[in-house]
Amino acid sequence: MREGAVFLLEISLCLGMRKNILTILVAILLSSNAWAALSPLALSIVPPLQYPASDYSITGARVSALWGRHRDIYGIDIGLLGNITEQDFVGIGVSGLFNATYGTTTVWFLQAALGMNYNKQKTNVYGVQVAAVNINEAASAIGGLQLALTNIGDHTTIYGAQVGIYNRALTVNGFQIGIINVTETLRGIQIGLLNFQSKGLFKVSPIINIGF
Predict the structure, then answer these.
(1) Cβ density class 83-115: b for 16+ within 10 Å, e for less
(2) Do 93 and 75 meet the contact criterion of CB atoms below 8 Å apart?
(3) 3-state secondary structure at position 131
(4) For 111-114, which contacts have Cβ atoms below 8 Å and span 24 or more sequence positions?
(5) What is the pTM of this model?
(6) pLDDT tens track of the chain, all 212 residues?
């Protein structure tokens, strides 16, 4: 509950743009890797045809004709096909096919792809995560909306709504809407053909399930 309260407080901070900018700046300053090589802008066709090189941290915007690959991204990330971040990502990510982050991910407002959003380490989303497939592998929290055909997050806590054909989350605080919904703890409503709640009174419930 304490972690949930902290996360909800963090969501409230995103209402002020100055605080969002401050968060990004603090993340840059606290990153031990950020001092190695910084650039405010990255332009890429496909690695290694990109500037700057992949070992740089980008502190403003990355624009990729196909896809780019860099150490860290703090800012706006736009790729025609995809975006790849090796370590930390903080900001907005939009691509035609995929967003892939192998370090920690903090999404402000939007992470969107026609194909897949893949986040390997701890992930926090303050806004909307939308794709055909959303996969958050590590401990994650969604404050807002997670929307996809398939949402997979065995360690993800939802504060808002998870919507798709197949939805899987650790904890849902709000709504889980789809054909098949799976969660361990429900504090809200599941709406779907089959609803699974492993810690609830009814382990399986058709059409609608309510948890408190």
Answers:
(1) bbbbbbbbbbbebbbbbbbbbbbbbbbbbbbee
(2) no
(3) coil
(4) 113/82
(5) 0.85
(6) 545 544 544 555 454 544 555 555 555 555 444 455 999 999 999 999 999 999 999 999 999 999 999 999 999 999 999 999 999 999 999 999 999 999 999 999 999 999 999 999 999 999 999 999 999 999 999 999 999 999 999 999 999 999 999 999 999 999 999 999 999 999 999 999 999 999 878 889 999 999 98
Sequence-ordered strand ranges (E) for the chain: 38-46, 49-51, 57-64, 67-70, 72-79, 82-85, 89-95, 98-101, 105-113, 116-119, 123-130, 133-136, 140-147, 150-163, 166-177, 180-197, 204-211
158: three-class secondary structure by DSSP:
strand
Q: Please give the distance of CA 138 from its chain centroid, rounded to a whole number.
A: 11
Instruction: Judge whether 134 and 155 are in contact, CB under 8 Å.
Output: no
d(CA 192, CA 182): 10
How far is C-alpha 159 from the geometric centre of its chain's CA atoms? 13
DSSP states of 72-100: EEEEEEEESSEEEESS-EEEEEEESSEEE
Strands 204-211 and 105-113: unpaired
